[in-house]
Fold this sequence. Notes:
Blueprint: H1 2-11, E1 38-43, H2 49-57, E2 61-67, H3 70-83, E3 88-92, H4 95-102, E4 108-114, H5 132-139, E5 140-150, H6 153-165, E6 171-175, H7 184-191, E7 197-202
Parallel strand pairs: 1-2, 1-4, 2-3, 4-5
Antiparallel strand pairs: 5-7, 6-7
Bound molecules: S-adenosylmethionine.
Amino acid sequence: MTDNLELSHQKKREFQPQRLSAPRDFMMPEVLSKDEVSLVLEIGAGKGKHALSFAQQNPDKHLIAIERTRNKFDAFAKLAAQQNSNNLDAIHADAIAWIVHAIAPNSIDSIFILYPNPEQHNPNQQWLNMPFFEFLLSRLKVGGEVILATNIDAYMDNAEQQAHEVWCIPNRRRKVKSDSQRTHFEVKYLARQETCWQLTMSKPKGYRTRFDNWAIGNP
Length: 219
Ligand SMILES: C[S@@+](CC[C@H](N)C(=O)[O-])C[C@H]1O[C@@H](n2cnc3c(N)ncnc32)[C@H](O)[C@@H]1O
């Protein structure tokens, strides 16, 4: 598997984390200075429906949920303040720069990417097509998972193919249950009787990336 990964890397442009400045008003969440916390990330949390219920249902885990669009983040932040879960951080930032500046290698248990923007006209912006995805995998612990959901067949077909052929990471695809209500977009698509897909990718033991020892200040 390592050989395949190295081969596919030769075709993939290398992500350049050192080029990314810290997001405006960047602050390191307190939880990242603690040991033995089970850390979960959500990228593109929207108005926070999934993040808020995940934090309530998983008091043993700490969720950092990142949303870049101001009006969605404001709605999320308001609800997060009302709920006041001490195991949830709502972050207004571009997730790529924020993760580069905040997250240590081999430190995350799960990463949710639920109903990302389809990027049909700009497929190189789909998460599994981006060089950043290698960096993201370096932040996962062994056995950690990336959970991707979408209602777009072509997005899922491509993600599944990239997971196999480029990232060489074990994965399983399934249909999201028709009564699932994790996010606002999921509720909307399932109400229209659309098929929603989920791809769960798990980082195996011995998996290598070019960023396994890369951390801010120690590139
Ligand atoms: C289609 S919406 C889905 C929102 C939510 N996950 C849901 O299912 O209801 C995708 C969200 O991802 C956010 N997003 C896209 N790229 C992002 C990035 N690089 N960092 C943070 N958020 C991002 C967008 O602002 C948008 O709110």
